[in-house]
Design brief:
With about 170 residues, the chain is mainly α. The protein is about 40% helix and about 0% strand. Among the domains are: about 55 residues, no CATH class; about 50 residues. Helix 4 packs antiparallel against helix 5. The chain is elongated, with a radius of gyration of 34 Å. About 5% of the residues are buried. This is DUF308 domain-containing protein. Keywords: Membrane, Transmembrane, Transmembrane helix.
Length: about 170
């Protein structure tokens, strides 16, 4: 027999036994009954959108969400809401963005304003003299250079003499 005919025979056996059932009774349900998901959880009432979905994609019942309503899987009884269930974490407001100094704000304006003016002038077909184009390109380059120079890639001034491992 050639290796190809052995492989063909194996495939024929797999295809022939595709619809056959196993003799073992546990083959119909490969997991314990306690792991079955209840119909209430299968209702698809938006549990995943509220963050109640399990990692495997199985929707969990309302009782797993901690909202105090739903039946307890261990006892099968309805449980009453508890006093602390409505508490949600509300993060503090973020700190305000720092106000840059006048030079950095002007640099950002030049960086974006020069090309924006050229684009707007080209779209609206404004007449562009040579000095206007030069000023817009020079503003873009100057804004970029000022921002890069002020970026500073050295250690902070208060880091002391030992700045740890430097890679």
């Amino acid at each position: 027999m050639t290796p190809q005919s052995d492989e063909d025979e194996v495939w024929r056996q797999i295809v022939a036994s595709f619809n056959e059932t196993a003799e073992d009774a546990s083959a119909e349900q490969p997991w314990p009954d306690r792991e079955n998901v209840t119909e209430q959880a299968d209702a698809g009432d938006g549990d995943d959108a509220r963050g109640g979905g399990a990692p495997g994609g199985v929707a969990l019942g309302d009782d797993a969400l901690g909202d105090g309503v739903g039946d307890d899987d261990r006892t099968g009884e309805e449980r009453a809401p508890t006093p602390g269930d409505d508490d949600h974490y509300i993060p503090p407001p973020p700190p305000p963005l720092p106000h840059g100094d006048a030079l950095s704000r002007l640099s950002w304006l030049a960086l974006f304003g020069g090309p924006a003016y050229l684009l707007l002038a080209a779209l609206l077909q404004w007449p562009m003299d040579g000095w206007i184009v030069f000023a817009a390109v020079a503003a873009f380059i100057a804004g970029f250079v000022i921002l890069v120079v002020r970026m500073g890639d050295g250690p902070p001034a208060d880091s002391g003499w030992d700045d740890g491992a430097v890679v």
